[in-house]
Request: fold
Amino acid sequence: MSIGDTLAEARRQADLTVTQVSQRTCIRETIIRGIERGDYSACGGDFYARGHIRSIARAVGVDPEPLVREYDHTQGAPQAISAADVFEPATPIKIKERRRPNWSVVMAIALAAIIGFVIYHEVSKPGPPPHNNPAASAAGVSHPSSSPHTATGKASAVATPSKPAATPASQPYANEVVISLTANQACWVQLTTASGAQVYAGVVSAGNSMHWTERQAVSLRLGNPGGVSLTVNGRSQTAGTSHQPVTLSLGPGQNSQS
Reply:
């Protein structure tokens, strides 16, 4: 039984029409009918044909992997696809890293503040009281408690302590990349790690949202970038205004520019 016959039979057993499958997968009815007849010319290439087969198979309750293998066997082995070949033009996000604080300067300021505080307290201590001299008291001679030179010396030695520098706040999203996607129009989405492991692949219907939190660099591919609203690490990101597919490269500890 061919791929199209398998999908058509599963759809009928699930008591679904082509229109209902189209609504569930956001794939045009003409493409679904063509796949059921074994015609993949409207899919736009092998890459999208495999994606359509997977989406339709899940919608009608069939395991998609044997069908994809059958497609590769009958239509030709899959070739290596680069981001430049499938999702031209690729538009990696430029990331601006925050400048790390200079801890040497912070420690030097804090040390200077401590030394100034110690000097201030040492100089501000009151001197010893003058010794009582009975003979001098009888003669009416008074001894000053301190000389002008000593007072001036004390005044010049007073240092105003500096305020310790505030500890800089920790950098947000230092160890993760947080992605939020809302589809204003139906959009095919694929999220993979830097090693090529697939996190998600499928069609996000209009009005639905997806959220991912990853602790490693990822690649986000969008088939309809103009139809989605994207937020990366808490900041709005413009993926594109056209319907041409794009690829976005994202990593932990990075804030993408709007």
